[in-house]
Design goal:
The complex is a heterodimer of chains A (123) and B (171).
Chain A lengths: L4 H15 L8 E6 L2 H6 L1 H14 L5 E6 L11 E5 L2 E5 L4 H13 L9 H6 L1
Parallel strand pairs in A: 1-2
Antiparallel strand pairs in A: 1-3, 3-4
Helix pairs in contact in A: 3-4
Chain B lengths: L3 H14 L4 E8 L3 E8 L6 H6 L16 H10 L4 E7 L3 E9 L11 H11 L4 E8 L2 E6 H8 L7 H12 L1
Parallel strand pairs in B: 1-5
Antiparallel strand pairs in B: 1-2, 2-4, 3-4, 5-6
Helix pairs in contact in B: 1-4, 4-6
The chains are: A alpha+beta (123), B alpha+beta (171).
Chain lengths: 123, 171
């Protein structure tokens, strides 16, 4: 349905109500490879799935940011999760795998080893 | 690159890297062609840089010696016997224009333009965008500056706002 500015105004009021509940302290940072290689491998869908899943689960203080090519084009789409002072690199992502990472790594605090670059390098 | 919308996302990153505060992306479809224009007010390029910009072995990056985005885009347009141009002025901005010939078997599909727009907004809430998509069945325009006058202190990349944009586009 075509949306109106009045709808947007309503949204603004709703978001404003919830915004106070958030803590401005950033706890988790997800850095997604959005270079030419990343995009052609499917990074756009992975990024949009990450943002959607984070929002769906109402997770706060998570920042999703882009980066360029990091030189491992064959492992794209990939992203780094910076959490609790630790960096974990997930490779060959799909929207489904990215959603799993949000659930397991960010909610349940369990790294999905099978999707990490360390696991891939051993194979 | 599988489709034109992904190329657009890739090329628009150049505008953002050039510190553009406004990026205008326009797509016009007819039965004969798909025309893409990406215009920014970023830092622009000198004539010398402009000559080298579609060379895959030219990049301003220091970490690697290849820059494939624009060269792949140009190649894909030219495969269809379409036209490609890029104009730029230092401190004024850059305009990339590409016209894909739809009658060519090598013409890429347009792809999901909305997802490209949304990704750009999600990643760059402080940059302004004008998105236009015109086809025989669609005449869509979104100017994020207009949305921001309503949203005030609310960021444009809040998910309820993104959903509003989705519905507005599909409406």
């Amino acid at each position: 349905m075509k949306k109106t500015i009045a709808d947007l105004e309503k949204i603004r009021m709703e978001v404003l109500k919830n915004i106070d509940l958030r803590n401005s302290k950033e706890e988790v940072r997800i850095v997604v490879g959005m270079g030419t290689c990343g995009i052609s491998a499917g990074a756009r869908e992975v990024l949009n799935a990450l943002v959607e899943e984070i929002n769906r689960r109402e997770l706060k203080n998570i920042k999703v940011v882009p980066t360029g090519c990091v030189g491992m084009c064959r492992l794209e789409p990939m992203f780094d999760v910076y959490k609790d002072g630790e960096k974990v690199t997930y490779v060959e992502m799909t929207p489904e795998k990215a959603r799993q990472v949000v659930v397991e790594h960010l909610v349940n605090n369990r790294i999905i080893e099978d999707y990490t670059i360390g696991k891939r390098a051993k194979e | 690159m599988r489709d034109i919308s992904l190329h657009i996302l890739d090329i628009a990153q150049n505008s953002l890297a050039a510190n553009a505060s406004l990026v205008e992306i326009s797509v016009e479809e007819t039965s004969d062609y798909i025309e893409v224009t990406i215009k920014d007010n970023g830092k622009g390029m000198s004539e010398e840089e402009l000559k080298k910009v579609t060379d895959p072995f030219y990049t301003t990056r220091k970490t690697r010696k290849v820059g494939l985005g624009l060269s792949l885009f140009k190649q894909n347009v030219e495969l269809t016997n379409g036209s490609f141009s890029i104009e730029s002025k230092p401190n004024v901005g850059t305009v990339v224009n590409a016209k894909f010939n739809r009658h060519s078997i090598d013409c890429l599909p347009l792809g999901d333009l909305l997802e490209t727009f949304i990704t750009l907004i999600i990643l760059n809430p402080d940059t302004d965008f004008v998105f236009k998509h015109k086809s025989p069945v669609k005449d869509y325009q979104l100017d994020t500056r207009e949305l921001k006058t309503v949203l005030n202190e609310i960021k444009i990349n809040e998910i309820p706002v993104i959903n509003w944009i989705r519905e507005d586009y599909n409406g």
